[in-house]
């Protein structure tokens, strides 16, 4: 059974619909057939009971009293009514007031009377065959005859059963025709429903492999959900591919000069015989290698945050925890022991929907920039400003001028202060993290003096989308 279900799950939608329609028709057909047969039996019983009752009334109305005796002449009309069921046997019995049979078949057994109804019906047998009987009573109050006479008329059930089967057969014919019509309609509906899928498949098949622009196909609302999901997936894939292109471009752009410089310094070192000059060259090689290592770290950090921005699950993060984590790691104490760094966080939680490692990486880059180009004291903190929440790195320096400030955050900008001894990737990484989680990178000179770089987000309870 599980294998059958697995095969069924992998089957086509057309086969599923066909199976569903067939199952519906079979079950519905059985129910309709049972209902039609029950209705046919009831209709046949009602119709033929009326014939029996009419014949019994005709016979009862023909009974007369003559010289204190009941005189009966069986009416032809009564038998004409019963002749409407030509294949059935007919039986009758007339019982006098004293319970004796005046005429008819003594084999007809009348059950004990129940109720006071003048006319009633009962089921019995007639010479070994199932039969249906009607009883009509007639009251006489004559001087010579006083009492109630009973007229019993019955017939076998062949006509009734035939009528019930005929009604059932007609209902089944109608059911077959309507079922065929439903199957045809289902086929048309399935074809109509699957047509948009073929259109989508054709559009995807004819696309250039590098074309990741959104699909613009007119489809029904139900199929539009799949189009939306496909477009979202292609947008994420496009961002991933762009990040890969940027990583390759950044790496080629940034590594070419440092690697060439290292090679040149290594060639000079190999040809230099003066120990003092060799020592200076070795120091330059060491400095260049350290700079190259920092550059590689930034390139990999940028690739990491771009990847996590698309793939990492958004969770509620307290910005105070991010600031505390970066401060307690203490890298600044080793790299810049001469600069004072302090922590500023409040007691009120600052929840945002984001990815904690990405936020930490972004804040580390902001702190490193402040340590390299700013003036002590330097503050790392988290705060709430109006309806927004932020984490920031702040220094006491004057900050860049307005023109340079407008260029901060652009990769490899030659006019930024970071270009003096770095790649300019630190702020670009912070900007990518802010955009990935619905925030902004805010760079500003403070009125009270100093320069602040901050990641600004909406609070988690303000409806930031996941």
Automatic annotation (TrEMBL):
It catalyses: ATP + protein L-histidine = ADP + protein N-phospho-L-histidine. This is histidine kinase. PANTHER family: SENSOR HISTIDINE KINASE YKOH (PTHR45436), SENSOR PROTEIN QSEC (PTHR45436:SF1). Residues 250-461 form the Histidine kinase domain. InterPro entries: 2CSK_N, HAMP_dom, HATPase_C_sf, HATPase_dom, His_kinase_dom, HisK_dim/P_dom, HisK_dim/P_sf, TCS_sensor_his_kinase. PROSITE patterns: HAMP (PS50885), HIS_KIN (PS50109). Keywords: Kinase, Membrane, Phosphoprotein, Transferase, Transmembrane, Transmembrane helix, Two-component regulatory system. The chain crosses the membrane at residues 17-40, 172-194.
């Amino acid at each position: 059974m599980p294998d059958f279900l697995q095969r069924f799950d992998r089957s086509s939608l057309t086969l599923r619909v066909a199976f569903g329609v067939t199952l519906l028709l079979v079950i519905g057909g059985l129910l309709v057939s049972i209902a039609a047969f029950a209705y046919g039996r009831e209709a046949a019983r009602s119709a033929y009971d009326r014939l029996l009752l009419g014949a019994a009334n005709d016979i009862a109305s023909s009974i007369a009293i003559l010289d204190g005796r009941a005189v009966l002449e069986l009416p032809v009309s009564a038998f004409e009514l019963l002749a409407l069921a030509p294949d059935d046997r007919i039986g009758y019995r007339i019982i006098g007031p004293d319970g004796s049979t005046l005429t008819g078949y003594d084999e007809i057994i009348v059950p004990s009377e129940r109720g006071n109804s003048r006319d009633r019906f009962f089921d019995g047998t007639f010479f070994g065959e199932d039969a249906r009987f009607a009883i009509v009573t007639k009251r006489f109050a004559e001087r010579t005859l006083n009492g109630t006479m009973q007229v019993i008329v019955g017939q076998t059930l062949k006509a009734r059963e035939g009528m019930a089967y005929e009604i059932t057969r007609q209902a089944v014919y109608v059911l077959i025709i309507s079922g065929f019509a439903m199957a045809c309609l289902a086929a048309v509906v399935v074809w109509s429903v699957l047509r948009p899928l073929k259109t989508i498949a054709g559009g995807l098949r004819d696309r250039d492999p590098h074309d990741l622009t959104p699909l613009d196909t007119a489809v029904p609302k139900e199929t539009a959900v799949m189009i939306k999901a496909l477009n979202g997936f292609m947008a994420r894939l496009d961002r991933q591919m762009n990040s890969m292109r940027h990583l390759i471009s950044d790496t080629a752009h940034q590594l070419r000069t440092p690697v060439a410089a290292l090679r040149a310094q290594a060639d000079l070192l190999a040809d230099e015989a003066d120990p003092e000059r060799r020592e200076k060259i070795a120091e330059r090689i060491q400095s260049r290698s350290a700079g190259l290592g920092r550059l590689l770290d930034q390139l990999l950090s940028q690739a990491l945050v771009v990847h996590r921005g698309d793939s990492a699950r958004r969770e509620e993060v307290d910005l105070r925890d991010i600031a505390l984590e970066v401060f307690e790691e203490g890298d600044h104490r080793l790299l810049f022991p001469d600069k004072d760094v302090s922590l500023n966080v409040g007691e009120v939680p600052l929840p945002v929907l984001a990815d904690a490692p990405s936020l930490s990486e972004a804040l580390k880059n902001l702190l490193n920039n402040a340590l390299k180009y700013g003036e002590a004291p330097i503050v790392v903190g988290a705060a709430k400003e109006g309806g927004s929440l932020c984490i920031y790195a702040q220094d006491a320096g004057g900050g860049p001028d307005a023109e340079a400030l407008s260029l901060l955050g652009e990769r490899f900008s030659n006019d930024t202060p970071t270009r003096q001894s770095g790649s300019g990737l630190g702020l670009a990484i912070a900007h990518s993290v802010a955009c990935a989680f619905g925030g902004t990178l805010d760079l500003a000179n403070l009125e009270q003096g100093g320069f602040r770089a901050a990641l600004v987000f909406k609070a988690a309870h303000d409806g930031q989308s996941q």
